[in-house]
Amino acid sequence: MFFVAAMVMYFLGTALSLAYLLRRSEALSNILLIVTGLGFLVHTGALLTRMITGGSAPLSSFGEAMSFFSWALVLVFLLVEFRNRVPVLGSFILPIAFISIVSAAALPQEVPTLEPVLKTVWVHVILSMLGTVGFAVAFAAGLMYLIQDGLLKSKRFNVLYAKLPPLDYLDRLNQQSIVLGFPLLTLGIITGALSAEFARGSYLNWNPEQTGALITWLFYFIVLVGRLTVGWRAKRAAYLTIIGFACVVLTFIGVLMKSHGTIA
Questions:
Q1: pTM for the complete prediction?
Q2: Which segment of 132-136, 150-154, 202-206, 223-227 scores lowest on mean pLDDT?
Q3: 98 with 31, same domain?
Q4: Which domain holds residue 28?
């Protein structure tokens, strides 16, 4: 019941966030925040209920991981909103969160029985998903940057232009999201390799999901080094983070196709 309620709230939040892009009414942003906040609360209730009934962290299946990813993404949006008051970020974040929770609902709901050695796989999942949340926010910031840059160059000072943050803010948000997300993904890969060693006697099996994760890690490593040392900024960084998040999505699809919904 909590899960379905959260899905409905995120759908309403997504609809309101997209409407907010096209209307000048600031009242929509307040309604959007209330609806999203309520959705986050009931989603938290759903995760806690699943943890109590399952007797462990609700992160044993790919569906549960996608649900956690959606929850964490909404949490980051709410934190940024309360700190910086950027409601337009929800127009780019909430659709991703809604698609994620719908994907979770479409996947098998039974909780898989894990071998004792895999009981700590939730650590790997949490770290990996939190890193992915950082990349999702960087993707949203990069997309907003390109849109705002295009509006400025074409001198179209419309409703969307007025709602989007300044380019400098979007560039900083893009970089900060990668700086936070990359170490988390790194720790996620390390803990995943340790779990694989304990369970199967091999740190790396070169299966599709591990290969995809390593490719994603290498890509963001190059982007991060470019941003912090070479000085890559603005439009180039925006394009690269969009490409990088596309790699993340392809990795998710690969995991789903191979594992049929089971992480371990």
A1: 0.86
A2: 202-206
A3: yes
A4: 1-110
